[in-house]
Amino acid sequence: MQYIGRFAPTPSGPLHVGSLLTALASYLDARAHRGQWLVRIEDLDSGRVVPGADTQILNTLERFGLYWDSSVLYQSHRSELYAEHLSRLAKLSQLYPCTCSRKSLAAFENDIYPGVCRLKSAATTLPHAVRIVMPDRVVELTDRIQGGRSYHLSQDVGDIILRRKDGYFAYHLAVVIDDHEQQITHVVRGCDLLGQTPIHWFLQECFGWSHPIYAHIPIVVDDQGRKLSKSKRAAGLDCKGRSALLCELLKVLLGRPLAMGAEHCSVQELMSVAVQQWSVNNIVKIQSVKVHKCADFC
Ligand code: GLU
Ligand code: ZN
């Protein structure tokens, strides 16, 4: 079976333990399938991009033995492609302009947009976002780790934005186009994106594309149960204790600790053992996990 996987970090800061766990899982899954592993920098939103974070992320990947195939793809270089695809959807009359203000959007429950601008004129001169109409039907997904899930598109997801008011293409549009263009067969990523997967599934259907196979791994949370992020102190990792941290992360992914003394092995040795022992079935079916010693590295 052909296997092409990918890791797609947003360069909003250095890699933290949570994104490292995701990188590791997608890498190991690709290598265990003798597949390719690509890296894509999701730098569409220049407001979130921290200059130099991409290089820092790539360096960290290398220091952990996560070597990618082919050249790194940058989303910021691909706006033309996203624009072309957006016009394809426009031709199917599935798009409409949304002039709602941030304030009026805040009133909608669970951030589900009920389509108030659907009936307004398609030609507006006001600044507007572009939304897609979510149909009134259910999509059923099977996740390799989390199992079966079903989502009602209009009720659980709502009309989502594909191009923002400030002109940026939305993550959802770009990720679907890039996964298709890069011929990604398997997506392994954090569970925080599980609930977004029906959006990607639906957009793939709109374009007439096949779906990658998805696996959503637990996300790393801190002692208070919050997702790690830059603002939550999860700053860059330094080289110190790489093997010790790898052992902790591999314990989560392999479902059991490595042999005694493994933390004294080199990164290369640990990675080769991990590829051999890898099975997606060993990953705990939970949505979040605390990583022991994580604080030392955050
Ligand atoms: N860029 C996203 C993130 O950093 C990941 C997108 C994906 O894997 O689909 O959370
Ligand atoms: Zn609106």
Describe the protein's architecture and organization:
With 298 residues, this protein is an alpha/beta fold. The chain folds into 2 domains: 196 residues, HUPs (Rossmann fold, 3-Layer(aba) Sandwich), CATH 3.40.50.620; 95 residues, Rossmann fold (3-Layer(aba) Sandwich), CATH 3.40.50. Helix content is 33%, strand content 16%. The chain has 10 helices and 12 strands. A 3-stranded parallel β-sheet has the order 1-2-3. α1 links the parallel β1 and β2. α1 crosses α9 and α6 crosses α7. The longest helix has 16 residues. The chain is elongated and about 65 Å long. It starts with a strand and ends with a helix. About 2% of the residues have low confidence. The structure holds glutamic acid (GLU) and zinc ion. Glutamic acid (GLU) binds next to loops. Zinc ion (ZN) binds next to loops.
